[in-house]
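hey so i finally got around to running both of the ones u sent me last week. sorry it took forever, my laptop kept dying halfway thru and i had to restart like 3 times lol. anyway pasting them below in the order u listed, first the sequence line then the structure token line for each. didnt double check formatting much so if smth looks off just lmk and ill redo it

first one:
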Amino acid sequence: MKFIDYLNNSKIKLLDGSMGTMLEKLGGYGGGEDNLYNPEKVIKLHKQYIEAGSEMVITNTLTMNRIYLESKKREIDVKKVNDSGVELARKAAQSKGVFIMGNLSSTGKLIKPYGKITEIQAIKNFMEQAEYLSGGNVDAFIIETMFDIREALCAVKACKEVSDVPILALMSFETVNNGGHTIMGDSTGTCAEKLHGAGVDAIGSNCGSLDPFEISEIVKIYREHTDLPIVVEPNAGKPELVNGKTHHDMSCKEFTHGVVKCIEKGATIVGGCCGTTPEHIKYLTDYLKKGITDI
């Protein structure tokens, strides 16, 4: 089945969960560098999500773009880390009909006039990463954890310049109050309309400061502005700082309850972000197979 046909059918579709926090638990770095230095851990985690029910796996390439890596002084080859991200996801999938989603995310820098980089620089930066991901024949691009709609649109434009595979674009929201807003002040409605207008194939929300129940309200607003498929990847609850480290401790049951609320409001593609585990995805998968009833 072509991914675009899969994307647009009415069935609820399962993404995977957190890569970073899970790779740390497995003894890795918790980022794209694990593709190069701990590839067996990346493959193992992808396989755990597939076994838990994920029908799509997201490459371990979050923020593996040149601007981000150079700004953090991380000596990682941009091509190698993205090439390996796709290769490891494909090895884990083993031609089981699992779709491979090429992951792009923020530069970590603000766009002018709030920061120093221009939109042209951002587009060029994302084009480079998209070219490497596309070279691995990803089934789609998934643009995640975006706080600035302008940067998200730069990533969308870059992906469209490189390939005609479908694009899923997800924003991260700081609050659900007054229509929901990102930390940069972009409203949910504005994000929906601009992403729809840019020609993406699905929109959504991941990470940020909201729990799954609050993200269901974002979904409701999205649905008022677009008929595109809606993706949600909530964190396992709100982030909490414990001994200098960020923790998310929402149970599998409560997480699933929140994701079901998102589905009831119109989401059709569901998964998890920070703090979620293969156990969260397995619980969600098992529940959805039984049908939407009381949890």
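and the second one:
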Amino acid sequence: MDLHDLVKKLAIKNESKIVLCVADGLGGLPLAPGGKTELESAKTPNLDTLAKNGVLGLSTPVLPGITPGSGPGHLGLFGYDPLQFQIGRGVLEALGIDFDLGPNDVAIRGNFCTLNEAGIITDRRAGRIASEIGAKLCAKLDQIKIPGVEVFVRPVKEYRLVVVFRGEGLGGNVEDTDPQKTGVAPLDPVARDAASQKTAEIAKAFLAQAREVLKNDAPANFFTMRGIDKRPSIPTFEELYGLRAAAIAVYPMYRGLARLVSMNVLDAGQTLDDQCARLEAVWNDYDFFFLHYKYTDSTGEDGNFPAKVERIEQLDAAMPKITKLGPTVLIVTGDHSTPSKMKSHSWHPVPVLLAADTCRTDAATEFSESTCLQGGLGQFEAKYLMSLAMAHAGRFEKYGA
């Protein structure tokens, strides 16, 4: 019996409410030895109060030493083993913009980028162009024709786009063309298996035309491909937990992650205040709420330590809007760590705060990496977080006689 079989066997229904608040990239590092992390530097009176009355720990998104992408990081939080369910980012982005992926579709996440005259990437995100500029560029790319396959190009947000190839005999196992650094040329799409060779050839032909189409559109004069994949078969959230689940996320990728597991993805507005208002408005309609907060990650990737501290404080200020609703279980955590010092995702365990009336409290008086290291939950794989949430919500029967 695997974890999902056990969860389905033990799950029961009641009137409890679970809120999973994911501060993307929450975990951090001090800028110098002996210093404080972003979370430790932030003034978080509301989170600290929850920490005193709850229990803390550290979660490992995948395995020790493995740096996760946002997809594996969130799937783990939702209770899906990220080693068993591997989802390409293209699928998540496509689902996040409500693109209806079919069985013959291969979805690709694209990043507009800047090339110099020698074809070298000088900016991986094309100066973070405005969304309206990205939409116009996608409309141009959507005119490209490739024999034997349908091509769809859709804008996502800012410099992000989705490309979908639809046709028979397309595999989704193709290497990214994004080298993940500047100062080098984009990579060629290379198939990892024979079944994906046709897809790689189509991608190469499409990129050749795209370079010509975008050549005069600097700073967004090309784009790279990431997360090339087909939509997998995955059990739904309600099948596993018996929960009516709502996702309140702004960014398309995270809406896509929620849609992948068949959560009801709601209009979340554009700000954290909008999200909290939406949470209150639908409070009586669902059992589980996934609330995603992006900016702790983006500031970390920018290497902006003070800005990440400020974003954490903004999240803290919103906590009373959540706690006033009276969730049975409130979890605040991240999908991975994004230390400003590293300007990237990292392998470091992620702080976890679980607040419920059934907590066996620990000695923590604040929410931080150092207190989480001493917390009562210890260090655990993120895929077990939903089991803890279900238990504290009284939604599990006893196992065995």
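quick thing i noticed on the 2nd:
The radius of gyration is 21 Å.
anyway thats it, ttyl
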